[in-house]
Inverse folding.
């Protein structure tokens, strides 16, 4: 896995690729998002563990979960579905969040997101995302 983050016009973008050695028929995702507001109080927006293949099929309800999935699919070189292929280059190019898609109910805050991929309860990838949201 390789990741490159860059900034252009006051926006951060991410390029990444992942190549798997084996076919992945089943995996779990652990995801959490915490918001730290202007009063320095931290709120957990969600903390969840779910079936990764079901998630990729759009099998879960929730605006934030579906926003993340739609942006992954939008900036991916091909639609990501299970089984995940061996020796396939899964690529994200210019990945970012369109501020018009972020729910208005989320307050100005610093955001910390954690995403973990597990196969047979063994963590294989951990991603930590940091962002700042301002409605100005």
């Amino acid at each position: 896995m390789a990741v490159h983050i860059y900034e252009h016009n006051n926006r951060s973008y991410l390029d990444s690729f992942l190549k798997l050695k084996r076919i992945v028929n089943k995996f779990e995702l652990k995801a959490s998002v915490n918001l730290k507001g202007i009063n320095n109080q931290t709120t957990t927006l969600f903390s969840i563990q779910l079936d990764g293949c079901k998630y990729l099929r759009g099998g879960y309800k929730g605006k934030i979960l579906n926003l993340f999935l739609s942006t992954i699919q939008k900036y991916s070189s091909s639609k990501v579905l299970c089984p995940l292929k061996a020796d396939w280059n899964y690529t994200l190019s210019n990945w970012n969040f369109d501020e018009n898609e972020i729910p208005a109910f989320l307050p100005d805050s610093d955001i910390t997101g954690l995403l973990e991929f597990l196969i047979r309860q063994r963590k294989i990838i951990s991603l930590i995302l940091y962002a700042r949201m301002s409605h100005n």
